[in-house]
Write a structure and sequence with these properties.
homodimer, about 120 residues, alpha+beta, three-stranded antiparallel sheet, 3 strands, about 60% helix, disordered N terminus, DNA-binding
DNA sequence: CGGATCTATCGACGGTTGTCAATCTGGGAG
DNA sequence: CTCCCAGATTGACAACCGTCGATAGATCCG
């Protein structure tokens, strides 16, 4: 199976770098990676969370509690999911954690939806 | 709060047409709509299913059973989820249902990940 | 009509997920 | 050192999700 997919897929998608859903059938590995990222976006609270971080540039978790109206462990859970999907990154400074979006990861997902 | 967000958001996103996660904080409605679509993409089997449909242009469900190695009700379930998210559309012809992708919906999601 | 085929629906089962109260950790502030 | 605060972790619970066997509906063929 590797022979069949490699030639076709590489020619159209450029290999494993940035697979596209539309260009050629995904193998299990690519599908699993992309699915994890899309699943992270598949929750309204996380989407708004990401949106708030993007809008502010840098946000500490404490600033997210009020606009999202969720308990602190819930916010912590969601930031963890987004971070594990590579969509945000957190830098600890003193007592606070400063969250920022990872534009490259978003670009990867955008590319996956394009041909 | 409606005053604050309406002016800002409309100016940067063009209203409810094609909201962007990065441009301005999403309201609950936009977040819920986008989250449903991204959640539909958040499963490896559905991603590969979408990929197969896109690659073939038009596919009947029976051609999806073998490459995905899933039972027929499972395939039917996944096509339903993708269709409800607006990502694919099915046209019944005789005994078969021909599935096609909806490029406009994918474009909406791509726009949501851009600024 | 009767049998065959494609698809959708139902019911059930196990696993995952979103949520929060309670608790733990670690880094300032006094 | 002690207290306080930001954040992570744990445990628990309900809700949801992916999967499949069984079944039902629809359509074609002989």
């Amino acid at each position: 199976m590797s022979v069949k997919t490699s030639t076709k897929a590489r020619a159209r998608t450029g290999g494993d770098c940035c697979p596209s859903v539309l260009a050629a059938p995904l193998d299990e590995r690519q599908a699993a990676d992309l699915a994890q990222a899309f699943a992270a976006l598949g929750d309204p609270v996380r989407l708004r969370l990401l949106s708030l971080i993007a809008d502010a540039g840098e946000v500490c978790s404490c600033d997210l509690l009020e606009p999202l109206a969720k308990a602190q462990p819930t916010i912590s859970h969601h930031t963890k999911v987004l971070a594990q999907a590579g969509l945000i990154t957190g830098e600890k400074q003193g007592r606070w954690v400063w969250w920022r979006v990872v534009p490259e990861r978003l670009a990867t997902l955008r590319a996956a939806l394009a041909d």
